[in-house]
Design brief:
The protein has about 800 residues and is an alpha+beta fold. The protein folds into 4 domains: about 140 residues, Aspartate Aminotransferase, domain 1, CATH 3.90.1150.10; about 200 residues, Type I PLP-dependent aspartate aminotransferase-like (Major domain) (Aspartate Aminotransferase, domain 2, 3-Layer(aba) Sandwich), CATH 3.40.640.10; about 190 residues, 3-Layer(aba) Sandwich (Aminopeptidase), CATH 3.40.630.30; about 170 residues, Gcn5-related N-acetyltransferase (GNAT) (Aminopeptidase). The chain is built from 28 helices and 26 strands. The longest helix has 21 residues.
């Protein structure tokens, strides 16, 4: 299999969050001498605090503070001993109070993350399976990684899509005992809810189904005794539901709670629940504060606190209902999410509100899809109605200004979040007095000289190459080999071209650039479901090409406006086509489009590196050898030159029907073996069109000892009008490949043929960079930018990759 450099998910996350940090909206420090909960000081400015998750304000309650102080004075700052041996003196009282609240004994853990790590591996048996909502909290997903070590299936569904959940249940029902669905009660970004009633109905339909809820954002502000959103819905805990709550956030202290009605299971978790057994217990201050909070929860005061917060939430919702702000999930939770779509709009809006004296949280990838960037607003008991009214007014005032500053609009936001508002009429991108747009569907309508001079200097991107691509892939009967073409040219009023590019629309495998291990898993599924995990993609260039797919007049004063206009145009096309993802690809790392593209709602990934060889004229193998490094020269002499005389080499402009059949057979060998870049196989028609074109030729190598008269390897090569040689595809008989260094021989014969033709540049394409570098190629790092409607596919692929690593 070809070796390539794959993108690292962590690198992508780091890139996005580093950008937000550089904008001054993440990794901030509070500067207050003391905190009241109502305000917070950042960079010398005091702001009203609308970013807390302490919804009832209990973290500032004097009773909790005094209880924490007394616990420290009586028992010290910590009780450094595993709870399996002995709990410090306050633990029994806390457990009794929590049991009184819930009418069921709790398991108390250090925090919810450690709680999940303690519970999930103990709860889930080897014969069970797990299905996660893809927006379930990271701490749940992280704990589930441990299950994969034991071979337990861990599946994922799109957010709250119960039809998809039911399909997964049916698939797993014959393979597993219990099937656990894991979700949040209240989701931390949008403030929306798990559909608990519908899920319970599913458990009645499928007895194997069990439910596991993380309800840390539903705690205290909801339910009898503040027991949370999930308990408020289910009323009584059945054996097939487990709930994790918190003593932090709204509860005002520290720690987490776990509830299950099966006493045997509860004891098993307490006896050997990972962090419960081997980690330190809660500090006395945390337990003391939690007891004080539990006393409030067990009194009638909790109803007053809940009603007061509910009144403020209703007041805020009423204020917002009078305006046109795109609040994504309208409900009675204290979490609201204001859609911004693009990071740059969110940065602008956050800074505007900071300047007005309001602190709000940024919601950005990976917590939400990059195109669903927005502002998370949380209400708490600390907020006064005057503060809330002032915030609503400031949001209404600054929202349109932030949109105007960042070339955004309400229509774009509604489109990004899938909202429907008949009052929003989005105007299409129009030519203006400065820029003029030409959108074409065929290269035949474009001036060949202009195209070749600006774009056709590499790969199969010249005019004739695009003709071949259109003739081959446009209206192809096989949907996996079909591309629609869109050409964009942007000129100034003097008809000078500022920007030119082309896009294609087609079906890709979602794992195209995943690791071989991930693609191998998916290809097994595709044997019975060929279109599994595939998507409709609008992409710069097409899968048959690589290299810089655009021309930009960087010195033109309107270059930046032209880029912004192009991004608007392709996003309109993306939405019109209802594509799943929009991809801008093959950019150099230091390209000058980077910040603009990312600010418009794309995240950046590393692509496989490409290889280019500047093939200066040489007159003998020895002369070529001398141009290599000493190490590469040894490789060349030993593994390539020493084998050259074992091959017959032929250059053919056209293949006979029998030769074409053999060429296609060898191509399919390589394609099936190359899961590092996992694409759909090209059909025989692709190669028939090559065979009838004068721009293509075929380098055929046949081992002299091969007696069956069929060649062993072939390179499918394109001759660019601008003097570029493109070995586009390769075919090999693997029976001979390793012993006779067949792949390396084909690489060298390609270099040799380009030299014979007097072509000094070879676009060697992606993969096998180590082998190509040894023959003198230069490695060119590339990046791509992706806009996706949600994170589901990306998280699923990352989940599959982690699954393989843990085996």
């Amino acid at each position: 299999m070809a070796k390539i450099k794959h993108n690292n998910f962590i690198d992508t996350v780091d890139d996005v969050l580093s950008g937000a940090k550089n904008e001054g909206v993440l990794h901030l420090y509070a500067e207050d001498k003391f905190l009241s909960g109502r305000t917070i000081q950042i960079k010398g400015k005091k702001m009203f605090h609308f970013g807390t998750t302490g919804y009832l304000g209990l973290e500032q309650d004097n009773r909790l503070k005094q209880a924490a102080i007394k616990a420290i004075e009586d028992f010290g700052t910590q009780f450094p001993l595993s709870k399996s041996y002995i709990s410090h003196p306050l633990y029994a009282e806390l457990e009794a109070k929590i049991e009184e609240m819930y009418e069921i004994p709790p398991i108390i853990t250090k925090n919810s993350t450690l709680g999940h790590l303690a519970v999930i591996p103990t709860l889930i048996r080897d014969e069970d399976a797990v299905i996660m909502d893809h927006q379930v909290h990271w701490s749940v997903q992280n704990a589930c990684q441990l299950l994969k070590l034991r071979g337990i299936p861990v599946e994922m569904i799109r957010h709250n899509q119960l039809n998809m959940l039911e399909e997964k249940i049916k698939y797993l029902s014959s393979k597993c005992n219990k099937i656990w669905y894991m979700a949040d009660g209240v989701y931390s970004m949008y403030g929306d809810y798990a559909p608990i009633d519908e899920l319970i109905q599913l458990t009645q339909k499928y007895n194997q189904l069990h439910l596991y809820f993380d309800d840390v954002h539903g705690m205290s502000w909801k339910g009898k005794n503040g027991t949370g959103f999930v308990f408020d819905t289910i009323k009584e805990l059945p054996e097939n539901i487990v709930v994790v709550g918190t003593l932090s956030k709204t509860f005002g202290a520290s720690g987490a709670t776990v509830f299950c009605s099966n006493e045997k299971l509860r004891n098993k978790i307490k006896n050997f629940g990972g962090p419960l057994t081997f980690s330190a217990q809660l500090e006395p201050a945390s337990v003391g504060a939690a007891i004080a909070s539990a006393n409030i929860h067990l009194s009638s005061e909790i109803n007053l606190l809940q009603n007061d917060l509910a009144d403020k939430i209703a007041y805020f919702n009423q204020l917002l209902s009078n305006g046109s702000l795109p609040i994504i999930s309208k409900n009675d939770s204290p979490v609201l999410f204001l859609g911004m779509a693009t990071p740059i709009t969110a940065y602008n809006f956050v800074h505007r509100l900071f300047n007005e004296g309001f602190f709000l949280n940024l919601g950005i990838y990976p917590a939400v899809p990059i195109k669903n960037t927005g502002i998370r607003i949380t209400l708490s008991a600390h907020n006064q109605k005057d503060d809330i009214k002032a915030l609503a007014q400031a949001m209404e005032y600054h929202f349109p200004k932030a949109l105007e500053d960042t070339n955004n609009s309400p229509g774009k936001i509604h489109q990004a979040f899938g909202l429907h508002n008949k009052n929003i009429v989005e105007s299409k991108s129009q030519n203006n007095s400065e820029l003029f747009v030409e959108v074409k569907n065929s290269i035949k309508t474009i001036d060949p000289v202009e195209w070749n001079n600006l774009i056709g200097k590499q790969n199969i991107l010249d005019y004739e190459g695009l003709l071949y691509l259109e003739n081959t892939f446009s209206k192809h009967p096989d949907p996996t080999n079909q591309f629609d073409f869109y050409y964009y040219t942007i000129r100034d009023k003097d008809k000078t071209i500022i920007l030119m590019t082309f896009f294609t629309f087609g079906i890709w495998k979602d794992d195209m650039l995943s690791t071989e291990s991930v693609s191998s898993q998916l290809e097994e599924i595709r044997k019975s479901n060929p279109m599994y995990l595939t998507s409709k993609i609008l992409s710069m260039g097409c899968l048959f090409t690589e290299g810089q797919h655009y021309y930009e007049n960087k010195e033109h004063p309107l270059a930046q406006k032209a880029l912004q206009l192009l991004l608007d145009l392709v996003e309109e096309k993306y939405n019109t086509l209802n594509a799943d993802r929009l991809v801008l690809r093959d950019f150099k790392e230091d390209n000058n489009w980077n910040k603009t593209i990312q600010n418009q709602g794309y995240f950046k990934i590393n692509m496989p590196e490409s290889c280019v060889l500047e093939n200066e004229t040489w007159y003998s193998n020895e002369e070529f050898s001398e141009r290599l490094s000493s190490r590469s020269r040894k490789h060349f002499n030993k593994e390539i030159l020493a084998y050259e005389n074992l091959y017959h080499v032929a250059i053919k402009q056209h293949l006979s029907p029998k030769e074409l059949e053999r060429a296609y057979e060898l191509y399919r060998n390589v394609q099936a073996n190359n899961l590092a870049i996992n694409t759909f196989p090209y059909t025989i028609e692709v190669f028939e069109n090559m065979n009838s074109s004068n721009n293509w030729e075929f380098i055929i190598v046949t081992l002299k000892e091969n007696k069956n008269n069929s060649f062993n390897g072939i390179m499918f090569c394109y001759k660019n009008a601008k003097n570029v040689y493109v070995p586009e595809l390769i075919g090999m008989d693997y029976k001979w490949a390793k012993e006779y260094h067949l792949y390396r021989q084909l690489l060298f014969q390609t270099i040799k043929r380009a030299n014979q033709l007097g072509i000094q540049k070879i676009d060697f394409g992606l993969s096998a960079t180590f082998e190509k570098k040894k023959l003198g190629a230069t490695i060119v790092p590339k990046v791509a930018y992706i806009q996706a409607r949600d994170n589901y596919v990306l998280e699923l692929l990352n989940n599959l990759q982690n699954n393989h690593k843990l085996r």
